[in-house]
Amino acid sequence: MSHILSQKPAALAASGRNAVFLSRNWHLMDDDDDIIVIEESICLPPSPVRRSAPLREIEILDEPGPSTSGSILDKHVKLPSTSDSYSNFNKLLELEQLIARAKANSVNKRSPKLGLGGSDNDDCAIMVQENIPADDVLAVQEKTVPLAEEPEVPVKKKRRKEPSEAKLQKERERKLKAIEREKNASINSRCEHYMYCHVPRLVFDTFTDTELNTRMEFLQRNLQEQLICDEQRNDMQIVWYRKCIDVEETDSGITKREYEALQHVFAVVISADSFKELVKSKTLEDFVTSQKLSYSLPNPTLVIIIFGKQSRNLFDLSISLFEYYRTQLNYVDNAKEFAIYLAQISRALAKLEKPSSKQDRLIVDVEKGIKDGAPEELIEDWWDKMLAVIARMHDAHRRAIMAKYPNPILASKRFSEMGYANAVKELSELRSESGRRLGPVMAHRLFMILTDLTGRETVA
After folding, report:
1. Is residue 37 part of a domain?
2. Residues 386, 418: one domain?
3. Residue 153: inside a domain
4. CA angle, 217 as apex, 326 and 301 as ends, to 5°?
5. What is the pLDDT of residues 53-73, one digit of tens each?
6. Superkingdom of the source (predicted)?
7. What are phi and psi of 327, to 5 degrees?
């Protein structure tokens, strides 16, 4: 027959797992396979809280006290039946939870660290720390083992893109503009920095303090690099070179070409006593001729620098030397004047390049008049071009004059007969389309141009 359980709750200890199973309906089977159902009202006491918790075997590491291994409840121990027993049961559950937490913390602190080096074994280390079985850890390690590295395929270097024609043209224009700017600076603002004065060592050794004063003078003008002492030459000639810049176009592009150009002016330094000897012996002309022939450029200008006091009796001689031989005489009393004179020549030669570059330009650039036509048309065209070159003549006044006096020849005769006062008064009252008067100043200028008999009256 089936065994009837007691009316109090029973604890079934599982031999393998030491776990207690509680259920709202207890199902027990005996040898006769008869099932006895025990109602909830019989098994559990009346309580609002229907709660049961498993009782497990708890082991606390490094804690004193008896072990809780084995069955929790003895077979001969009677279960409590009062309300105090249930309060003790709840306290036992709380104690069990605290002990479980302490055990978990102790396991985490004392768990050995496996030597899973590298980022690939991080997941396995985490599994070990979480008390995952070793088989699962090994499975993860097998999955995370990297495959054999594939041989590196050489990456082809990108071919450098050749610059296009537009970029080359832009770069060529940029270089050309830079060279043109430097070329303009060598003529305008920085012209003195492109003029070099070459003085032989013999000049500095012959006349005392000339080197010191000359270098100080050029240093004050910020031209110390433009004064060069020639150690190789043994003559007394001082020469000047200009640094020139030109543009050269080659197959590779635009390049800058720098070269030195010898100037047409040079100087010879002698003492006052030596100059007197040349004058007395009447060999001055031969000396000038020999010096000019020894110069590289044809027909140069020679400057004779004389150290000493100036002689008043050589005025006619200096005029004849300049007229026939293009030679100038200059006296200097001391080394300071000598240095200043060399700096002045350098400055004059540097600034001479600017006006010489404008010699090929037209003085007046106007449109040409008509060649074929009636006489009245030719006269009117000539009269219009003549009024256009008069200084401070406005276009409105020019049109008013041509409308009032279409023939300048007849106007000249009329103004000569009227006289200066009446003609100037009439011209000054002439008004343009906007009502602006010509004025007495422009009337005076126009009267003098039209009534001039010698042809020397200034038009422009």
Report:
1. yes
2. yes
3. no
4. 10
5. 444 444 444 444 444 444 444
6. Eukaryota
7. -130, 135
